[in-house]
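Can anyone check this?
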Amino acid sequence: MTWFQITFFFPVLSSSLSPQPTPAVQLSVPCSSKSPSDPSSPTPRNPSLPSPSPPADGDGLIGPGHPPRLASPLPLPAPPAHLMFLSRIVLRDPDSIDSPAASMASSKKLVTRDEWERKLRDVKIRKEDMNRLVMNFLVTEGFVDAADKFRVESGTQPDIDLATITDRMEVKRAVQSGNVQEAIEKINDLNPTILDTNPQLYFHLQQQKLIELIRAGKINEALEFAQEELAPRGEENQVFLEEIEKTVALLVFEDIKNCPYGELLDVSQRLKTASEVNAAILTSQSHEKDPKLPSLLKMLIWTQNQLDEKAAYPRINNFSTAALEDPAI
């Protein structure tokens, strides 16, 4: 049992930093507390840092893996019915499940696989609604070719012009490839107000530019850029200041593995910044910044967790296959 005949992968790139008070507005190096004169201090960072290979061209850039392949015809998927049925049970008393099986030793209701699947089949979902969910995901994540093919196959019209997706993906690819200045210029060409009205996004792009300078071993240029472009923003925002300090700390260590902020040089940091840019452009186009499908997955997880307290039933544990697993008795 699968979600669709289209396989999706939903990357989760989230991180948060809790700001700590800083006594003065100045750049410091939080990775090391030793004096530069201390012979045991870490060796300065080697100027020639390896650069991760940029993602390959094409829609596959929009996340790990490849673009979804379309299958025709598109059947009605079962898991959304699973979600709707679960929601009904959680909102009502679980005793409304008429199960011929005996109750478990505990107070939980036991539901057999046959009964569960029978009730799932009773939940009716319109194919048009499912198609709109698929189109929403393809458009939001930028799979322009797949969205166009799906439009032809299913007759589902996207809610934005597919031509605008190409421009948005060019910006995203520029960030993913480390060409931050090119991305900034493309954003301004697309809509100059995006960066003017989103100082956090602009700061993160500038921070990514500093990371790319450090990655390339341009130490003097990186320090100058941090002092002239980023430090003034740190004076106005404590969170920005801490981010600057963590980024500059990359210069101290020859082996990034010894620095607690070495993940900033990982390709996942590029993807995180690119995702933020993508969301800002979508918002400027009056389009929701996140696809609906991941939200439905989260709702399914929450609903199952709620029902686990009241009943034993076939649940979905592996969301890549959406296979029902019998309850442990």
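Reply from J.R.: I decoded it. The longest strand covers residues 109-110.
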